[in-house]
Amino acid sequence: MKIVPLAAESLGVRSMATYVEVGKTGILLDPGAALGPNRFNLPPAPEEEEALHRAIDRINGYALRAQLCSISHYHNDHFQTELAPYRGRQVWAKNPETMINESQRKRAAAFWDGVKAHCRIESAEGKFYEFPDALVKASPPLAHGVEGAGFGYVIALTVTDRDDGFRFVHASDVQGPASPVATAYLIRERPHLLYLSGPPTYLERQVGTEVIERSIENLLSIIDRTGCRVIMDHHALRDYRHQERLARLYETGKVVSAAGYLGLTDRLFEARRNLLWAQQRALDDRPTRRSFKKRD
What we know:
It is built from nine helices and 15 strands. By secondary structure, the chain is an alpha/beta fold.
């Protein structure tokens, strides 16, 4: 099984876009990318804008190889409104009417209206499909973070290689997971590789230390019970101190970022946006070198 994180916080943008290939079967998961509109009271830096353009091009390029596209939920960093990732494909998308908050409901309705004439779109919840090379299974709705927090629900996708039984689970914005229900589901899926959003430590004052600690414990439990390796990215890597704050997870030797999984160095643009703008201002303030004509 080939697993390619296409865009992520460790790759410079908000995203969990991933391409999975099993034999001749290609699957594109959460084909969106976005930038945080306001961080440190600053807009996105030029490096972030450039990374976003590259990410969208990469996602749309890999979409050409996919038969199935899945959308876990309707936050703007997880799906596109453009047709490129969906045209002519089978699309599994979070149900637009049930277990969804109002803002996502409106986005979902507009999205389904825009793409339904161009692809075979179905509600993802609980679906199962047998490709020649892979088994693909969608979860029931899992909480986006803490149960009842108001951020809605997401759909996880399990891809199993029919040849060797390897299982990859893409669990999107479960944030840790923070929910005991999501934790139990992921243990039951027994992934060999799990990709999820880590605890949102950059919002620890808002969500509370108790929630962060519970999320850490839940992921440690998943690792202990299943022995899986973990790609942890997205919310966790919006905090430039994530390695320190989430040290217990990294000490397992089982957890890497999306960039780390690809053998690359983390590019934490949003987490360091204030530094990026400080560097930009320093460049803008440099005195220009004047050219003087030598006199005889």
